[in-house]
Write a structure and sequence with these properties.
mainly alpha; globular
Length: about 120
Amino acid sequence: MTTTPTPRIDSVDRAAFERAVDIVLATVRWRGFIEAHSDDSFEELGLLCVALCQDRALRLRPWQPAPCADHVRNCIDEHLAAGDDGIMGHHAAARVAKRLLDLGLSVFEPDPLAAIEAAEAERVA
């Protein structure tokens, strides 16, 4: 079994991880998830929580990746250059990841579209 490498995170990513963990902790049906991963590092737990939150916030289909997925965040330009892949979702996830990064946000935002909307509104104000 291969394991996903734990991402190196900065303060912007850490804050996004913390928000995701808080959301998961506040969701009663997900509390057992936190308990099951209590031995994980903060980064591993944060990444799992972000994936849960992004999946829910973006209403992803089971086969569609979230912007936080390794193969999306590490290959944004390649996914964008490949063009729209329809229902597979790699291109859409890469577009969201790029928008987040262009706004100085983290690809680990629990609700990426809300974060983008808030950052863009702040720029206009």
